[in-house]
């Protein structure tokens, strides 16, 4: 008869209560012993050591480390609860192992120090429900978690040096943070980080990285508060560009100060990384920014800091909000194009560039117009000192509009055409 570890523990406790004695729960450590490959079932007692019940309890420590001769899929076939799960083929020539859902299967992580470790190409494709904060790691060799992760808790990349791939896409709906204190977390599908999750790369002296891997994702903030500056966000794909959108909630601020050759935000390979700032809150990226894709500010504040405030982007789009350098000098480089979107329906009408000494002498500027501008004033930039009497090039200036470089003494503004003028909507 098949029995779960949980049922065995309950039976022992019941007997102890009847006899007036204190029962000790059966061993909560389980090892997979079935040496067969192909499709196997989790909920079969004889597949496990001890063979007195299959693991299904919040204190269960489970190891699946067969010496497989071919690919192995273990189907859960029901909701299974464990505290820790390690999946790692022990063979010299290892074959893929997949912990799969089967029929209505789901894996629950519960208890203190809840964790999953997948190594040597292993995969957990079954849905995962967090009943506690959990550590996810790749152990020896790379591993993948492709099942959707749900629950109101956080996940953290473990201490292993191998890369862990998170590939649940929009099925990842967990409500807590995404923590990367060690190693590398790689995306294996678009939106594998929930857009409500803050990515925290706080840690000690070890380097750590988030590799977008040619996929796009949205997060609620990017931060670290402890450890050295060797934290990196990168694309790291040869052919596919990645877009990172940071959508920060109102009245909220996050700081990512990664810098140096091992830190910051970068392409990481030959394909570009693009950065979009959205949401009414503030994202401070005060470290190095060598990514070459576009930078777009839609809302809130993107603060580049005062030291490493230059952008390698060739296209900088100011749709709304503020691009800020904390009063430091800022140069609009000749290799860059700055596009302001003029939209009278948006608060402020456009994006704002804020700097101390602002050099516009090599600046290339273009405009995108949405709706009727009327005679409104659109402030494009604020400065303490201005170098250059005008932008080097201006394209798509709305008919009848004018640029004023000393508006109110320290602003660059576009004055819309007189009311009633016809404006081409692009």
Number of helices: 1
Number of strands: 43
Let me know the largest β-sheet: 10 strands, mixed
Radius of gyration from the CA trace?
27 Å
Q: Which band does the percent of strand residues land in?
A: 35-45%
The helix/strand class is mainly beta
Mean pLDDT: 90
Which word captures the global form? elongated
Which residue ranges are poorly predicted, with pLDDT under 50 across at least 5 consecutive positions? 1-25, 420-426
Termini Cα gap: 71 Å
Description:
- It is elongated, with a radius of gyration of 27 Å.
- It starts with a helix and ends in an 11-residue tail after the last strand.
- It contains one helix and 43 strands.
- Strands 3-1-4-7-10-13-16-18-20-23 form a ten-stranded mixed beta sheet, with no helix packed on it. Strands 2-5-8-11-14-17-19-21-24-27 form a ten-stranded parallel beta sheet, with no helix packed on it. It has an eight-stranded parallel beta sheet with strand order 22-25-28-30-32-35-38-41, with no helix packed on it.
- Mean pLDDT is about 90; it is low at about 1-25 and about 420-425.
- The longest helix has 15 residues, at about 5-20.
- Helix content is about 5%, strand content about 40%.
- Strand 42 and strand 43 (about 410-415) form a beta hairpin.
- It has about 425 residues and is mainly beta.
- About 45% of the residues are buried.
């Amino acid at each position: 008869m098949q029995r779960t570890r949980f049922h065995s523990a309950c039976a022992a406790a019941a007997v102890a209560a009847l006899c007036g004695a204190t029962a000790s729960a059966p061993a909560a450590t389980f090892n997979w012993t079935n040496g067969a490959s192909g499709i196997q079932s989790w909920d079969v007692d004889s597949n496990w050591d001890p063979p007195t019940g299959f693991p299904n309890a919040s204190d269960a420590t489970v190891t699946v480390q067969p010496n497989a001769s071919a690919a192995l899929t273990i189907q859960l076939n029901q909701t299974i609860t464990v505290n820790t799960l390690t999946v790692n083929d022990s063979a010299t020539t290892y074959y893929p192992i997949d912990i799969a859902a089967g029929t209505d299967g789901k894996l629950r992580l519960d208890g203190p120090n809840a964790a999953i470790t997948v190594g040597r190409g292993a995969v957990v494709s079954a849905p995962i429900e967090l009943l506690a904060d959990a550590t996810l790691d790749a152990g020896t060799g790379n591993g993948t978690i492709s099942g959707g992760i749900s629950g109101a808790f956080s996940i953290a990349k473990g201490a292993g040096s191998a890369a862990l791939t998170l590939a649940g896409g929009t099925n990842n709906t967990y409500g807590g943070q995404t923590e990367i204190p060690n190693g590398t977390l790689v995306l294996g599908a678009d939106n594998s980080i929930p857009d409500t999750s803050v990515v925290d790369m706080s840690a000690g002296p070890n380097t750590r990285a988030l590799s977008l891997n040619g996929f796009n994702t949205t997060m609620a903030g990017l931060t670290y508060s402890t450890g050295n500056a060797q934290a990196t966000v990168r694309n790291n794909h040869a052919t596919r560009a990645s877009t990172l959108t940071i959508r920060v909630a109102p009245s909220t601020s996050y700081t990512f100060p990664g810098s140096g050759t091992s830190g910051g935000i970068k392409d990481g390979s030959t394909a570009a990384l693009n950065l979009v700032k959205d949401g009414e809150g503030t994202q401070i990226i005060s470290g190095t920014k060598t990514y070459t894709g576009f930078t777009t500010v839609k809302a809130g504040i993107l603060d580049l800091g005062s030291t490493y405030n230059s952008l390698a982007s060739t296209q900088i789009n100011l749709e709304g909000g503020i691009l800020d350098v904390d009063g430091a000098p800022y140069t609009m480089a000749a290799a860059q194009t700055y596009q302001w979107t003029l939209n009278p329906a948006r608060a402020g009408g456009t994006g704002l560039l804020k700097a101390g000494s602002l050099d516009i002498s090599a600046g290339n500027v273009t405009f995108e117009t949405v709706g009727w501008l009327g005679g409104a004033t659109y402030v494009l930039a604020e400065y303490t000192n201005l170098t250059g009497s005008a932008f080097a090039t201006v394209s798509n200036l709305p008919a009848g509009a004018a640029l004023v470089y000393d508006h109110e003494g320290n602003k660059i503004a576009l004055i819309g055409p007189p009311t009633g003028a016809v404006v081409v909507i692009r």
